[in-house]
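Agenda item 2: heme C complex prediction
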Amino acid sequence: MLLVGVGVVSALAAGAAVALALNISERKQEGRNPFFRVVELTDDTVDPEVWGKNFPLQYDGYKRTVDQVRTRYGGSEAVPRTPTQADPRSVTAQSRLEEDPRLKSMWAGYAFSKDFREERGHAHMLSDQTFTERQQVTQQPGTCLNCHASMYTTYKKLGEGDIIKGFEKVNAMPYFEARKRVEHPVACIDCHDSQTLQLRVTRPAFMEGMARLKKAQGVANYDVNTQATRQEMRSYVCGQCHDEYYFQGKEKRLTYPWDKGLKIENILAYYEENGHKDWTHAETGAPVLKAQHPEFELWNQGIHARSGVACADCHMPYQRVGAQKISDHHVRSPLLNIQRACQTCHHFPEEELRARVETIQERTFNLRNQAMDALVGLIDDVKAARTAGRTDAELAPVHALQRRAQFMLDFIEAENSMGFHAPQEAARILAESANLSRQGQILLRDPKFQPRIPGQSPPSAGDAHPVPAQPKAP
Ligand code: HEC
Ligand code: HEC
Ligand code: HEC
Ligand code: HEC
Ligand code: HEC
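Presented output:
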């Protein structure tokens, strides 16, 4: 019995040794051949599945962006629905309007008061845009597609090789005409050069926005694709879409309001100067603005940007697969992946890191609720004043306070990290928003009251600081 036992054990050990040796040599092989060129990719290969033949690991992660998992303040919930002819989706994300009906008051008269949902993974971007009820309230322009589809080859084709020309053509089309010319959500070719795989920016609005921002900082003719560092590109590819925007002029040109800088005061000063309004508030008559997902702008004001930590460091962290180190293309909430997203730099237990994030988010959420109550209070008071006969001309100074308070609140409300990307900046903005709404209420009651508007003289544009080469762990 003993002899047989020893024999079995040593046979197993020998087998294990052989298996290990094989495994090591396989891994060395993988390390040497980062990929097998199975297919030839060109500057016109838009289908991510074709790219996936050469890069199966990245493609696998990319496909997983269909997943819906909730975190306390992020991720999303899969809400089943009955598909209809008009909207064939069988699953959507939870409605934010149902979660907080005060949003309908803030956006009264605007398409957002009709349908606004929690955002979900990249795989859904094109269908969620196509089928949102916001498409039924007004005719949307082709510009919308810039951030919801793989656009690079469409721009190139329509512009006969010139993506700026193609971009202008798409912007000027009605949405559903432009929609026929795209097929995929954001794809490999939108972030990568097909030959070198290097990161690149393909969105004209981002190139132009950055050039205007740099000009304000004294850098002429900035070209993001030749002048940005690799670490900067690891955020800029995301900044192509995750930022505040508006449609300029009749041609509906997608424009990022960064001429004076990226801080909220810079952006507000820009809109004051050009007199832009997104719509007229249905209940108060105020000319108001809608802020949209300013992740890039808010991140820029935080300690991580200051320390050179990029979007991709947290949202596409490195992952070891065999001997390869790849970037996780399953772009999602880092709280679903704390070990790889945070613990490479922060040597604290997972629960401690989660608690730090959730503490920041809970504080932001509480302030957001107070600022929202204040704004709805102001809106109700203006409504009552109009019913009592006060004219919009008389109410103009109060409208100005509503416009500013509302944009500041919406800037943090629309930003998707619930304050995490720049906690103190988020808290400051919400506190000032609440103060502005309450001052509006006082002004309605006492015409002699002199409102004090903080930060109206914009700080210098020098707030998009250069990024240090490599971040160090604290
Ligand atoms: C230091 C890490 C870090 C960096 C850098 C970072 N983020 Fe985040 N981001 C987070 C965390 C943490 C959350 C909160 C996630 C949650 O609540 O589930 C978040 C939330 C988000 C969300 C909402 C995700 C969701 O699940 O709802 C988006 C979108 C986002 N970030 C985009 C960006 C972009 C774009 C950049 C760069 C401009 C960036 N982030 C930089 C950590 C980071
Ligand atoms: C500058 C880029 C950009 C443009 C232009 C853009 N979007 Fe988006 N959109 C985003 C980003 C980023 C998200 C995810 C973050 C969020 O929802 O806040 C998003 C989310 C959405 C969602 C899902 C969440 C929701 O709001 O219900 C819909 C629907 C949507 N957009 C529709 C549109 C429509 C319609 C237009 C044109 C009027 C448009 N988008 C233009 C970047 C953009
Ligand atoms: C072409 C525009 C575009 C680019 C480029 C882009 N995003 Fe997005 N992102 C979107 C849109 C649109 C959505 C919302 C899709 C929806 O709700 O259907 C989204 C959603 C997200 C979410 C929410 C995912 C979830 O599960 O809730 C995160 C996180 C995110 N993006 C981070 C990033 C990061 C990080 C980068 C850069 C590596 C990036 N995005 C690049 C347009 C873009
Ligand atoms: C939203 C932008 C974005 C999209 C879309 C995207 N990638 Fe990437 N990809 C990145 C970033 C960021 C990196 C990290 C690059 C770096 O650090 O230089 C990366 C890195 C890579 C690398 C280098 C090895 C690694 O994993 O770090 C390969 C290969 C790659 N991506 C393939 C793909 C393929 C294939 C697709 C489509 C299925 C794709 N990518 C879609 C942003 C993107
Ligand atoms: C690439 C490295 C890196 C990654 C990845 C990273 N951090 Fe950080 N983090 C830093 C640095 C550097 C600082 C600034 C520390 C300092 O200067 O004292 C910081 C600061 C912080 C702070 C303090 C914030 C403040 O405003 O004072 C928190 C909280 C934090 N990180 C949480 C996280 C979480 C959660 C993640 C993952 C989602 C994460 N970090 C990912 C490097 C990183």
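Discussion summary: The beta strands are 79-80, 91-92, 246-248, 253-255, 279-280, 287-288, 318-321, 324-327.
Owner for follow-up: CH.
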